[in-house]
Design a protein that fits this description.
Strand content: 5-15%
Order of helices and strands: EEEHHHHH
Shape: rod-shaped
Transmembrane segments: 46-67
Number of domains: 3
Keywords: Membrane, Transmembrane, Transmembrane helix
Structural class: mainly alpha
Pfam families: GASA (PF02704)
InterPro entries: GASA (IPR003854)
Family: Belongs to the GASA family.
Length: 146
């Protein structure tokens, strides 16, 4: 059975062919093969884009965490004797900026800074970076330096 011009011809149920009036009727082309290939290509591009975006976000997050870790662990910047006495006020202002007991924090921080010449990084904790600051205790045995 020979297909007519412009008709849809299906030699078996799994593939559809279409014949065009401007193409020789003996040449048959699959109807849906190009659309399927284009859909696969678009999906591959979309998946590639999302993977690249995920890698970029991971790199930015890793860089930010590494910078934060360096801030907390750099002993040369926060260790004993790393400050001059004139740098104590701005460092104590930073250290005590988030406490509700600002005046006592500033008083003891400046006292500890003038003795130890260091103020730990951050707003709380991290006293291990500055041993003098960490080991100075009150008469009762509590921490003297905030």
């Amino acid at each position: 059975h020979q297909p007519q011009r412009g008709s849809i011809y299906s030699p078996n149920s799994s593939t559809l062919f279409i014949t065009h009036s401007y193409i020789n009727t003996s040449q048959r082309k699959p109807l849906f093969s190009f659309a399927f290939c284009e859909a696969k290509s678009a999906m591959a591009k979309l998946v590639s884009f999302f993977l690249l975006a995920l890698i970029a976000i991971s790199m930015v997050a890793t860089t930010a965490l590494a910078a934060d870790a360096q801030y907390h662990l750099d002993r040369s910047m926060y260790g004993p004797g790393s400050l001059k006495p004139t740098q104590c006020l701005p460092q104590c202002t930073r250290r005590c900026s988030k406490t509700q007991y600002h005046k006592p924090c500033m008083f003891f921080c400046q006292k500890c800074c003038k003795t130890c010449l260091c103020v730990p990084p951050g707003f709380y904790g991290n006293k291990g970076v500055c041993p003098c600051y960490n080991n100075w205790k009150t008469k009762e045995g509590g921490p003297k330096c905030p």
